[in-house]
Each structure stands twice: as C-alpha cells, then as structure tokens.
Amino acid sequence: GAGVSQSPSNKVTEKGKDVELRCDPISGHTALYWYRQSLGQGLEFLIYFQGNSAPDKSGLPSDRFSAERTGGSVSTLTIQRTQQEDSAVYLCASSRSSQAGVGTDTQYFGPGTRLTVL
Amino acid sequence: AQSVTQLGSHVSVSEGALVLLRCNYSSSVPPYLFWYVQYPNQGLQLLLKYTSAATLVKGINGFEAEFKKSETSFHLTKPSAHMSDAAEYFCAVTRDGGFKTIFGAGTRLFVKA
C-alpha cells in the first residue's frame, strides 16, 4: 500500500475486555514500531520489530500488553483485560532499514487507533 | 539514557512572524535528532532530521533546525509563519544502531491571522 494503515480507527470497549489493534506497514519495510500517545503527552515507545522479531519488549506497560508480527508484515497489538488508563491513541510506524541503519531511519506513521475504555 | 525536552507545550505566533520551537536533548552517545509534525486528524510526518552530517538541516515547508552540541539543542525555526503551519510538533532522538526513539511531549503551534 501507499502508506501505513491501522485498524480500527476507533475502538470503544468496556473495562476488562480484550482488544486487538492491527497495523499494516509499508510494503518492504522491515522495521515496525508501536507507540502510545496519551492526551497531552508525547509518544511513548512500546515495542519494535525487526522482521518478525522483537529484540526489546521492555517498553510494554504491563504483561497485559503483547504484540506479534507475522510474515515480516502485519502486526497486532493485543491488550488483555483493558483498564481505563489504557485509553489513548495507539500509533504504528514502519521504516525500511535493517538493524544497523535503523537509528537514522525516517519512520512513516499510520493514522492511529483511538482506544476508549469505558 | 536519552531524553528530549521541548520547552513550551503551546506557542502562539502571528502570521508572518518567526517560528521558534525549542528542543533540548540529553544523550551519552552522539545523537540522531528528528522533528516530526502532526497536523489535525493526521499521522505524524517527518519535517527534518540530523544524522551527523551538516549541523544546519533544512526540511519541508521552509522549516530548518540547527544542531548545537555545546548547547545540546536542536531548535526548529521558520522565518515566516503561515496559517497552514498550525499543528503539533515533536522533537525526537535516537542513536547509532538504536531502534528506540524517544519523543518529546510536543509543542502545539497556533498561528494567528
């Protein structure tokens, strides 16, 4: 596709439910990132994939959060037993480089998924 | 550890006036620095980046930023603001071979007619 796409664009759920957020990166981009943007705050790094591997999961806020990437393409961020503090915009980005060059990469962002936990 | 501080969560300028958005970073290794812009209801897009070449970096839409190591700063400027510049601007830092991008809290720019 032409850009990074995310679905759904909006998700309203009840506290305690599980949610899945999807990211389709730009074709051919090996690096993929998830961020969380809370109201009035900057972007909080959650996780990075190089291909299907996530070398560092320490940014995930709790063990209720997990992410996977399959086929070096689509990624899913899953939040189990959602809490009200999980309400935020979840952003996905992708970039083209392998590990060695990723520090200088331009990241291309999707439009985000706005999650509201009631 | 790396960090980014953006001074001023909100900046308001008149159309045609100078835009100055401040960013200071902290890094124990040579940094790579970025400015991203987020227009209303849109995703973030890159304005410009510093990757250890020229210290004065020119970006899209007339923006530029200067890397000043002695001041640990990477302030964003534009000589003349336009109404279409109204957006939120984020400064970010990474390092060589690093995947973890640290973003500042953002500065929302308002442009008055």
Written description of the protein model:
The complex is a heterodimer of chains A (118) and B (113). The N and C termini of chain A lie far apart (33 Å). Chain A has 118 residues and is mostly beta strands. In chain A, 36% of the residues are buried. Chain A has strands spanning 5-7, 10-13, 19-24, 31-37, 43-50, 65-69, 75-79, 88-95, 108-109, 113-117. In chain A, strands 2, 4, 5, 8, 9 and 10 form a six-stranded mixed beta sheet that branches. Chain A has a four-stranded antiparallel beta sheet with strand order 1-3-7-6, with no helix packed on it. The mean pLDDT of chain A is 91. Chain B is an all-beta fold and 113 residues long. Chain B contains no helices and eleven strands. Chain B has strands spanning 3-7, 10-14, 19-26, 31-38, 44-50, 56-58, 64-68, 73-78, 87-95, 102-103, 107-112. In chain B, the strands form two sheets. In chain B, strands 2, 4, 5, 9, 10 and 11 form a six-stranded mixed beta sheet that branches. In chain B, strands 1-3-8-7-6 form a five-stranded antiparallel beta sheet, with no helix packed on it. In chain B, a hairpin with a 5-residue loop joins β4 (31-38) and β5 (44-50). Chain B is globular. The mean pLDDT of chain B is 92. The interface between A and B is medium-sized, with 30 and 28 residues.
What is the molecular shape of chain B?
globular
* Helix-strand topology string of chain B: EEEEEEEEEEE
Helix content of chain A: under 10%
The sequence of SSEs of chain A as H and E is EEEEEEEEEE
Strand content of chain A: 35-45%
The profile of the biggest β sheet of chain A is: 6 strands, mixed
Radius of gyration of chain A: 14 Å
Overall mean pLDDT of chain B stands at 92
- Helix segment count of chain A? 0
Which structural class do you get from the secondary structure elements of chain A?
Answer: mainly beta
Largest sheet of chain B: 6 strands, mixed
State the assembly state of the protein chains.
heterodimer
Measured between the Cα atoms of the first and last residue of chain B, the distance is 41 Å
Terminal CA distance of chain A: 33 Å
Instruction: Output mean pLDDT of chain A.
Output: 91
Shape of chain A: globular
Strand fraction of chain B equals over 45%
Structural class of chain B: mainly beta
Q: How much helix, percentage-wise, in residues of chain B?
A: under 10%
How many strand units of chain B?
Answer: 11
